[in-house]
Amino acid sequence: MLPAVLAALLALPGVSDDSPPKPGAAPAVAGTLPDPLVCADGTPVKDAAAWRDKRRPELLRLFESAVYGRTLVGRPERLRFVLRDEKKNARGGKATRLRVGVLFEGREDGRQMELLVYLPNRAKGPAPVFLGLNFDGNFDTTEEPDIPLPAHWVNGLFQSGHDHKPREADRGRHRAMFPYDLILDRGYGVATAGYGDVEPDEVGRWKDGPRGLGPPPGRGDWGALGAWAWALSRAMDYLESHPRVDRKRVAVFGFSRLGKAALWAGAQDERFALLVSQNSGKGGVSLMKRPVGEPVEHLAGKDLGHWFAPDFAAYSKNEQALPVDGHALAALLAPRPLLILSAAGDAWSDPEGEFLGGRGADPVYRLLGTDGLAAREWPAPQTLVSSTIGYYLRPGGHDVTLDDWQATLFFADKHLADPPTQK
What we know:
The protein is of the alpha/beta class. It has 11 helices and 9 strands.
């Protein structure tokens, strides 16, 4: 009886053990994986020019039409940045901390997000910065008492009251996912904003975020993931304007659904120099055509379907018809360094499928002159592959841990130009 109960539990999202499935235990894909180096008309991509001028734009359009939807709003003309607070001796003197209002409509009573930025005080010049969204507001990422509670919707799934309202009791609850001191000690800055500031993660809330700035989205237009990705580009607009930020060394990261948003932001916005996928799963770098983990039927269903373009639902129980998959999303990031972080017990994300997504992008990375993904077989846990497409599998479940960040910083030290000196 106990084995049957355990098997049932492990089939549920968010419940896992620490043992990775055996490599090859499931078919690589169901159906044919689209070749990223063959154009829609059958023409093979033989050089960087053909990739840049023909195949890459094709893949972007396919992701727009089939998965994430078309982004209908660019950088707003009235976009404005307001410095709300500056603390020059934050984190025990390690950092200058900024709270920046990113006003999408140029006014305080309009759509906006608050960006929390830490810049290392020991940097001798403009610093590289990690940028990513958080689930429950900036106050949730730090124990600092002077970060105000957000005025907007928060996810609140693991907070003291599940009504999407921030509570003082939840201050710093997820600070382990944002190890600011570790990042600063290594010479990097870090910036974050609550994804609920941008657009609440609920069905029918599109008018409350950047999607409300444009025409009502149609069946092939952007979902919430597109809005969150758009917000990362607006944060980049601010970061590249700051004299203490090295705009050529901004890395974008994200966990779970926010990992999907980070990858889509990186595909559309090539200003991001390095990409980090933290358990992005299906709809991210993992292969949706693999009959393992979260199916499109769940992603496109009534609870999560607002993340995607409405037309994505056409692939529910029909993944083999998808014209793109996670490997093609990874390929759109080439030749920039990409680190794929997986967890052995995160069955819903399919960690082997995440690795195979990286493997599928390898030919594009190599065509563009990089070493691609050096590993041919799924690596053992806690073995960092630090090639241009990097991969790291850790024990545990769906989460972001200190182990993940240590691997990330090692990878960034190797791949960002003029890496900071390690402490």
